[in-house]
Amino acid sequence: MKIVIALLIFSLIIIFHELGHFLLAKFNGITVTEFSLGMGPRILSTVKGGTRYSWKLLPFGGSCMMLGEDMEDAGEGTFGSKSVWARISVIAAGPIFNFILAYVFSVFIIAGIGYDKPVLLGVTEGYPAAEAGIQAGDVITKINGKRIHVYREISNYTTFHQQEFQSGKTVRIEYIHDGETKTAELTPVDNGYGRYVLGISGSSNYRTKADSLEVLAYSAYEVKFWIDTTFQGLKMMFRGQVTLNDVSGPVGVVDMIGETYEESQQDGAFYVWLNMLNISILLSANLGVMNLLPIPALDGGRLVFLIIEAIRRKRLDPETEAKIHFAGLMALMILMVVVMFNDVRKIFL
Length: 349
Known about the structure:
Layout: H1 2-27, E1 32-48, E2 51-66, H2 84-113, E3 122-123, H3 128-131, E4 139-143, E5 146-147, H4 151-160, H5 162-166, E6 171-177, E7 180-186, E8 189-190, E9 196-197, E10 200-201, H6 212-238, H7 250-265, H8 269-291, H9 299-312, H10 318-348
Antiparallel strand pairs: 1-2, 3-10, 4-5, 4-6, 6-7, 8-9
């Protein structure tokens, strides 16, 4: 059952991503030759309105193949026959649709259980926060100028800035105490386990109910949180703060979904639903961000070429671009195999 649920979540997120490309292609008069879920050989397919709709063997990935997408072809209905801004809208639509899907899922969660207000449940005596006069019940509004909307942003800030804290960088906290806005300069200290902390505590499970407008606003903050988390994770990876064991591919994600599903069953169907939605938000936002990276073969890589074309008002050689994207695709496939092998290894360790 857990594998079925994982595949359903993956399929929904991928289909919605490709749907973005599909709808914008149709809107701009581009012929879509094939719209598919999965990769590899076809299991089922049908042709309707000039487009082949396929379900393929490998349950990861999907595609929206457009006429003349990687060729210098300006014939009627081809990708290359449209203006550069039309082509940019088609390519950008996939990641944007992922963010839209994440937002819709967030609305369900925020409307159902509210949001984790950045209120402190306690402070630890002898640590910087307590010494600065910060107390339980205070609400954190900013950290070093970064606006804080949910409690998880506080814990994430601490996690992603450990190197800076170790070098003695101070943290400027803006908070509300008894209705009054105050500020404090704190220097994180080692908690004895090699982690630098401020001495504050709270919980993402401490939820505040939201009215209609707050549901809409905090759903956007929820998506923003996961986008920011993804970017911060990428920064840590490029800085060498993350190892291969900390990275998960499709196999690792399926295993994580399965474990979460089994643990949630003990709390009832409602919590299964909430946790699956949370995972879907994370994955959809993550897919949107990853696809916007300026890497050949990804949407972000294609956007780089299109933006260059818009600036120079002349298309780069399509054959050269196609070769670059193919090389990027091969590199991504190799990386996927390495990550998948590592995922399997971790499962059986």
